[in-house]
Specification:
The structure is a homodimer of 501-residue chains. Chain A has 501 residues and is α/β, with parallel strands linked by helices. The radius of gyration of chain A is 25 Å and the shape is globular. In chain A, the strands form 5 sheets. In chain A, strands 1-6-3-5-4-7 form a 6-stranded mixed β-barrel. A 4-stranded antiparallel β-sheet of chain A has the order 13-16-18-14. Chain A contains 17 helices and 19 strands. The interface between A and B is large, with 68 and 68 residues.
């Protein structure tokens, strides 16, 4: 069916256009030029079974491509998976059939489980452009039935890899996020491993926050582990602290997140589907969920927390995942350090039992580790917390962490605290009455975290502390002048601290 | 506030990324590289008052940019409006404040007129990415109050240029679209001009259809007229048939359409706001609206037509625009030719009064011209249609068209019918019982229309005609082999005709 004029040789163009596939064709390229494909801006590029859809950009610079070539941006080239110079057929893309279902959802209909699965399947195959993903997300944000949320979670878990540990009890803990410095996983995992439960933890890198567990763990050890390496480590240590991105768990989730974050769409339904699909794909059977609640946290009131808890419980229960929701204090950052190096320092201080280790981080980690240990049928009910404290105090947790670090290997680069710094001081004497989690996270991010592992914020006082006028509230660390200037400018504008005289 | 490391020299990159602004920075460019801007993918590029936001792509090919340069795609470069090599500051873009209002709309709230105006204003300044525009459109598709539709229409009309003709009666006609070959404007305008009413018509080019009025008129005359040239022509001829894109009427509409079309969002509210904002900006006072109704048309039932008519009447009335809605037959294509050259042929055959001119095109044009002439207070009520027929029969309309063509000047290139062709034949003897407007439009489009003005479809029979087995139903014309192959393959798959034995 395809005329020979629509065969092109592919050429990689070193442009990163994440999350989108992009292709480049010259304008007026002879017979049937790029403009003819432009009506819907999407083309299909294929050879045999290999096929991708890509957004088309039209080149007016003839030097970038030879005649008969089509350029592919980094994402498109990688996803098509053919060698440079391969001949491919190019055609106007057919919109994925599931877009009709998105349109019905926009029109107010409720979708069947199979329809939601078709949509998620097409999204995971990169057939949706960001604007089409936004259309789906916004239509869902308008209204989703519980059955739709369940179907969405199941569909997301079923595309991509699924880890299987062949263990009756695979535990995990997860925080719904939003609280800077809340790096409890790196304390909970060694405690639970020391006790002997199975806790193969995969974590994400930060997208809009100053650090994710994978970023902070990478200060101490290698986190970029293949599935084979993870299996080896878990077989010996019963635990791992790895980056989940390498093993392709719930890839649709990553694609949805790439649109949710810039649009700041953060509905309960999407949160449930995102978190639970990743856990199901990771082979988790028992999960402790941490809900920090506070005025600048994700959950702001107890009625909101209850509704969200019930939705999590219903969906998890229907999918055979046991969950235990723990409400915690989300009124201010946890610990002192924010940013990979500073957080790793706090985590190790807690594991080492240092006298000045941040007490709130230790207490919060023990609370969560206690709930995880309570999943162990061998433990007497309610003994989890005491057992966790014992494993921390005895040094067993520290030893487990050291074994994990040794097993995962050294980090790809040595990270040290950023040498550039600036102190933000109290404008008046008084008591710290509030700390804005959002603001502190943005300042740490501008300083360079998590890309610069040594950048971040070191908090010197917390809510309730009494300060003198001019006393330092926190110190911004940066690796580059630019990061320091940006962060400093934002802190000058508003520090994120409220000090009441 | 900005450190010197964030000053770049701009360099134009000849890549057309319509509708989006794109910017290119090298990865790991020294101190504060491109990756640090990637969290939200949008950056702000500014120098003094000149400022744009752009989506960032990261270059891994160091040869495209010199150190210290930022690349701007064609749209970004044009919209920033600075010379190549100008120094600009680059910062993480602040999302436009109006996005919070979009988020409230997603959450089910009704927006105030001023909030809708802020959103439209930011969209017209290219501050929204396609995914953000999609979020706004889908949120609106869920529910819009009549007051919101009115506010949207007004806001869209108020950004961009506004033509002012200083005439009490500025008439126009507009079809809501969807019917191939329905090129009545090029007959109505000369009839109305011959009568002496003021009809300065601006039309669009096709986006997803095989031809727009501007594309077809361009076969006969130049349509790319400056406002000054339009004014001169209208002063003498009382009419013009120009491309509206040149004069920047309701630019927000063009941006919204660039997202609505690929998503196929086509709600009554968006249709009303799109059409009426363009007419208000064009200075129209009295408008005849053509609603073709049929199984493959935009309006499919009379109850739908009545609801849509009332919405148009309410919004137009509130904005001081007189409208007259005409329901017409949208069950099949109008005329014989589809595509610029073929449609121009039909239009001229009607104006010349040729015996074999398509009767349905003539009748439909006379119906609409009659309604337009009925706006003339000098005419006796109901005499419009007879007056229109008289002006067509006498040759006055043809003479008016010839004066317009002479005034607008010759087309930029001579367009002739595509020499390549293929006939699609009846699979059996019988009666043509239905013609699918969508399908016929897509086949004509694949053949190359409207880019290749000589490409398109020539219909040999219409609904109700009796055909023998193997008799030609229509002929596909193309300029390029590729177009012919594509169109032919699609017609082989399904011709768009139903022939009942």
């Amino acid at each position: 069916m395809l005329p020979p004029e629509l065969m092109f040789r592919i050429r990689a163009i070193a442009i990163d256009t994440a999350p989108e596939n992009m292709a480049f064709l010259p304008r007026g390229g002879g017979d049937y030029g790029a403009e003819r494909f432009l009506a819907l801006r999407k083309i299909e590029i294929s050879r045999g079974d290999a096929s991708i859809q890509a957004t088309l950009a039209v080149l007016d610079d003839p030097s970038l491509l030879e005649p008969g070539e089509i350029g592919l941006g980094a994402q498109a080239f990688r996803r098509l998976g053919l060698a440079e110079g391969s001949e491919v057929a190019v055609a106007q893309a057919q919109p994925p059939a599931s877009l009709d279902m998105v349109r019905r959802k926009i029109g107010g209909e409720t979708l069947a489980a199979g329809e939601i699965a078709s949509i998620i399947n097409d999204i995971s195959r990169h057939l949706y452009s960001p604007m089409e993903i936004a259309a789906f997300l916004v239509a869902c944000a308008g209204f989703m039935s519980t059955a739709e949320t369940l179907a969405l979670t199941r569909a997301m878990a079923e595309v991509g890899a699924r880890l299987c540990w062949e263990q009756p009890l695979v535990v995990d803990k997860h925080c719904i996020g939003g609280i800077p410095g809340n790096r409890t996983s790196m304390i909970v995992v060694p405690i639970v491993a020391a006790h002997g439960l199975f806790i193969p933890k995969t974590s994400s890198r930060a997208i809009t926050s100053p650090s994710g567990t994978a970023d902070t763990m990478e200060v101490l050890a290698n986190v970029d582990l293949s599935l084979a390496r993870m299996n080896e480590i878990v077989a010996r240590e019963k635990a791992v602290l790895a980056w989940g991105g390498r093993v392709n768990l719930s890839p649709a989730d990553d694609i949805l997140i790439s649109v949710e974050r810039p649009l700041r769409i953060d509905t309960p339904d999407q949160m449930v589907a995102s978190i639970l699909s990743k856990k199901l794909a990771a082979g988790v059977t028992h999960l402790v969920l941490d809900f920090p609640m506070g005025p600048t946290a994700k959950v702001r009131s107890s009625s909101e927390a209850v509704r969200l808890r019930k939705l999590f419980e219903h969906v998890a229960g229907s999918l055979g995942l046991v969950i235990d929701v723990v409400m915690s204090d989300g009124s201010q950052p946890v610990g002192r350090g924010i940013g990979p190096v500073l957080e790793a320092r706090d985590v190790m201080a807690v594991l080492r039992g240092e006298a000045d280790a941040p007490a709130d981080l230790r207490d919060h980690a023990l609370l969560l580790a206690g709930h995880v240990l309570d999943f162990d049928p061998e433990l007497r009910g309610g003994q989890g917390r005491a057992r966790a404290a014992e494993l921390l105090a005895s040094g067993a947790a520290l030893a487990a962490m050291e074994r994990l670090m040794a097993a995962q290997g050294p980090p790809p680069a040595v990270a040290t605290l950023g040498a550039l710094h600036h102190e933000v001081c109290a404008p008046r004497a008084g008591r710290v009455s509030a700390i804005d989690c959002h603001r502190i996270a943005r300042i740490a991010r501008l300083a360079g975290a998590p890309m610069d592992k040594g950048a971040g914020i070191d908090l010197f006082c917390k809510v309730g502390d009494v300060v003198t006028a001019g006393a330092p509230l926190y110190r911004i660390h940066a690796v580059h002048d630019t990061g320091l200037s940006y962060a400093r400018a934002m802190a000058d504008d508003a520090s994120g601290y409220r000090v009441m005289a």
